């Protein structure tokens, strides 16, 4: 391989911004032109459409949590039955929030975390076939679950600016198979392979590295979502099998399906040969920590160009080992300065080439030329230990994409081999639509043989799809393609959209050409409006404010009735006494509610809506309907209609739509149950009043016969600035025995058995040394105390 001219102080060509790099010129050929190592004419990756969320892990809740009763009922149950272990929510929530932050931060900055998203396949024993490509990814709050995502191809038509159509098969996530495997510790790495028809997948956690076989078990349903996927462990290599140390990386020979190589955080690697199921034999091992600097435990390994050798990368050095003679090692490259190696990646097209990412540069190296990079680019990225590298080499060039779990910017570098010279085919650039950080990104090529072009005169452009697993365990995707600067593809037919736009308005002769900004609006992709842009946060606040208004109204009305007990002392919300399961449909809910309402109405209770009919929530949910026609289905239908108006259904997967409908169902049920109140009858309040009077009555009870107000009461009234009018209460002494009264709203003749509530009554414990006449307590009216009228305020 030829080399570029170097100065005496240079070991290789190192490119940076503002310099054209080395150059060659042949003086023997008069027609020869200057050849520069850095070129500007290469094809860049362009974005097709917008970055979309194909799976949102934060949208879905576990089935167990949905089956639990409401939070209000749980709070009451724990507070009543287990007061010794009950913790108030205002104390518990900050601790839970802090714990989640610590866990997520640890996972985010764990140096031993590897790939968390990979391609894989499953084996069908009935048809004896391998499934099509799938995605395996780490899921769960603490990254302890392995889930699978099926992929389905959709025929999509794209358009060029000259109205040339192209039919493209675009893969999209169709269904999610959750929790195929649940680990006891957070999963740090998963590795699979779909190019060699392999049914195996590697999983590495804190305690072991395991090779699984994914088996597809059929059920009565035809959908893969309704079938069982068994993850059968074939080989388990624990930490105590490799020097009692955590594993840093693990690789498997998916082609021969026999060999495993594991390296621990001390740099000790071991080679394992799988002779049969559940049997492993350690063939060789080596320790490469001799005379090198201390590291944070990060190591990475991969197969070399020869199947009997491996490449081992640490923070400061890259070495080549022979599996047959582990003591035989060769240094491929080592950093001489204070910079660290962050990632290492092999090329799939040329087994001799590999790339090393450091904190300062990207190095292109060849196994056959150890110690001397072919080329390097200084990336000038800030120090970021989560910075990683992936290679796309489907068009012959090496297109390197840098991504991070901290910085959303994705940088793109393009290398090529022109003749025998390593060169840069274009200047580095930011990848379009770099909108989110990424734990793991993989490239999914849209192969040419899968796509049939409608125009033979159209040059074939290479299309690919970039999938990324974001920190919230969601999967995003973006389509890219290589093309010249004057070629742009979109999902929109500009000509048809332009004519439709003009048909809805008057167009005179002077307005045939639309403005530039209008054309920009037309070019916006269909997918730019996402239903997640609808903000539901005000919904709860508005309902709460409405409830406060209702309670205040009832309280003020009761205060105007002197000497009369409050008729709305206990107002229950329907969700406090009824919590349907996730599987319950609307018809079953309405059937249950009819029975509940019938029982309460027969016993004198009033059922009414806490939402005024004129109220309109979020300006989309209208409650201006008759009370007997209003139900949860109205909320559900309104949410679905609003979502359909703002979402393009042609570009949303079936799985996406189904889970959106389920989410809207949960929202409508929660809103409906929270918006219905139950008002107790007067007889119920009268029985409560009589029960309270009986508790406070005593033969030795003495009634105050004068209107003299004690100093203690004056002190209390002076501090009573905001609250209920004190004239509504009367004062009464009680005997020496401390009355610690608690009364229950137990089932009585006027209330159905299912309604239970046990509010506590404020009591005052007395001391025997204190005069009985000085002890006062709030109770039911006996004799009114004359005092200055104070205005109640809210």
Automatic annotation (TrEMBL):
GO terms for biological process: nucleolar large rRNA transcription by RNA polymerase I. One of its GO terms (molecular function) is RNA polymerase I transcription regulatory region sequence-specific DNA binding. It comes from the Eukaryota. One of its GO terms (cellular component) is RNA polymerase I core factor complex. It holds the Pfam family Rrn6_beta-prop. Residues 110-423 form the RRN6 beta-propeller domain. PANTHER family: RNA POLYMERASE I-SPECIFIC TRANSCRIPTION INITIATION FACTOR RRN6 (PTHR28221). This is RRN6 beta-propeller domain-containing protein. It comes from Pneumocystis carinii (strain B80) (Rat pneumocystis pneumonia agent). The lineage of its organism: Eukaryota, Fungi, Dikarya, Ascomycota, Taphrinomycotina.
